[in-house]
């Protein structure tokens, strides 16, 4: 048995994703069993897209490279409005409806789901970012609507610029954008507290957890 195969066998034995697989796959911190379940869920999401057409709500955590999907959404809007993509940014709206109750796609932009909030939680009663409950490390984020808008001025108060990461590792090789390759985008989440309040708590959104 070759050395790569022996390493793969040892990884399977301890429920770890073999390097032979992880080097070709999307970033993930999950153990092997959870990783396989996640992989099957991702392929099912894509297969349903092929069989049933464009989804109403996109599972953003199911993409290999979410940034490309978001860029494509902006490009579609730019072509529709015949404006430069460099002048377009996203506006963000958090929806009350559960993603399974949403039956129609938005006219512009996209609905996304599948994010987890670390260090805080989304309060459905106040429709704002709230403090974490005791012993809650991560909570599900509500469905969000990413709305393309041209020449938009970002709000200076009333929101927290929450970064989204693919995994819990908030580091990685810097890309040409100046961000970590593990970084996806920052979203504006409604809040009645200052930015520094959530920054001190390290609040971020995660596409995939480590279990």
Automatic annotation (TrEMBL):
InterPro entries: DHC, Dynein_C, Dynein_C_barrel
Gene Ontology molecular-function annotations: dynein intermediate chain binding; dynein light intermediate chain binding
GO cellular component: dynein complex
Biological-process GO terms, alphabetical: microtubule-based movement
A Pfam family of this chain: Dynein_C
Superkingdom assignment: Eukaryota
Name recorded for this polypeptide: Dynein heavy chain C-terminal domain-containing protein
